[in-house]
Amino acid sequence: xxxxxxxxxxxxxxxxxxxxxxxxxxxxxxxxxxxxxxxxxxxxxxxxxxxxxxxxxxxxxxxxxxxxxxxxxxxxxxxxxxxxxxxxxxxxxxxxxxxxxxxxxxxxxxxxxxxxxxxxxxxxxxxxxxxxxxxxxxxxxxxxxxxxxxxxxxxxxxxxxxxxxxxxxxxxxxxxxxxxxxxxxxxxxxxxxxxxxxxxxxxxxxxxxxxxxxxxxxxxxxxxxxxxxxxxxxxxxxxxxxxxxxxxxxxxxxxx
Amino acid sequence: xxxxxxxxxxxxxxxxxxxxxxxxxxxxxxxxxxxxxxxxxxxxxxxxxxxxxxxxxxxxxxxxxxxxxxxxxxxxxxxxxxxxxxxxxxxxxxxxxxxxxxxxxxxxxxxxxxxxxxxxxxxxxxxxxxxxxxxxxxxxxxxxxxxxxxxxxxxxxxxxxxxxxxxxxxxxxxxxxxxxxxxxxxxxxxxxxxxxxxxxxxxxxxxxxxxxxxxxxxxxxxxxxxxxxxxxxxxxxxxxxxxxxxxxxxxxxxxx
Lengths: 256, 256
Fold this sequence. Notes:
2 copies of one chain form a homodimer. By secondary structure, chain A is α/β, with parallel strands linked by helices. Chain A contains 7 helices and 10 strands.
């Protein structure tokens, strides 16, 4: 039976790979990666570096699947939907071409396949259109959220309190949740926390987490926002893009 | 300089250990574990199994730190506070006795040290009382949340929507959040979702995740709650305790 593995590889540092991921890497006949354009060529290079380091078979190939054009002007969910469908078609073709019967295809997924990653959705959609659909297996990976917390030496939650993992878009629309809730923001191209000054919030920010140019900044949001804007701009200039995440907390409430 | 490492080891399966964790394991002179009583002796055994598998030095010791009595009748936060302080004192003593100057002590932390785990808090508190406080380093680990998602082959979030990671206690007090938000419940000894029947919720439940007796149940909450109660009772009978976690989602809203 054909299988398709979604293997979480952590972010930035090949040392975040788990033993289970190494085993999975060595079970695969072909690796696929969604090409997101030149500006993210580093993400492809990181996958190749992981194969070079952990794959014992040296004949496995890393196959880039083209990036369908994205209708940025379409309504958000419709745009996402059409783009996923176009990628599913491309994946189905690539899978048929490169994975033998009884073989195993794999994706090396940045971070964890279950956290704000579309690979599973695209793969599921692609399989839905196949006569001999392979079985999906998922190998969890260390997410940037976890690296953020580790580097800042903090817990993600306050004692017994919730953690809200959300996006910049949602944070802008919803604002901060109830006191006690720690907020982790991902996929925030616009640094939505800039609109939350003057509330006494604390921020733990990290960019390029796990990589050689990792940047960490923590403190009172009002005090450090300038440093964060500057650090982000510098990374964006260096790479052409920046991946960052941050945790926000309200000031400690008197516990009653 | 003395160091203390908090090493996330995933849950249930030694294959969740990362390469970085293996390196950290082999840097440590002594391992500490908080003894939580006989009923969790398996948690200690799992740590020993990880050392047997990954530690190249075979002379390292796994030192149990006694479990101070917990005032279960005290108000929740005060009780947690006194218990952490008592454990900090015990850790300080054990660290001085077992870790040489310039040496390295370590904790193998179930799951991820940043997610509903008190080790970091206790260690930070213990260090605050030391003249020659070691430096803390944290190695992220795969959390049960991630294993839950991997096993059910789901993403934790709906497209572009938040994930609320919370406790059984909080879920009971706050109920379900706004539509779109996926809710992950941890530390829920009483299966608080039993109070949320009749709302059309979907549940993805898992217990003993990563281990040989892993149980998974998914479906409409109203339909599968009986199976979950039964599976939990069976595991509790077998082990004397049960560790489970689950994801709840509201029915899909028409996207507008």
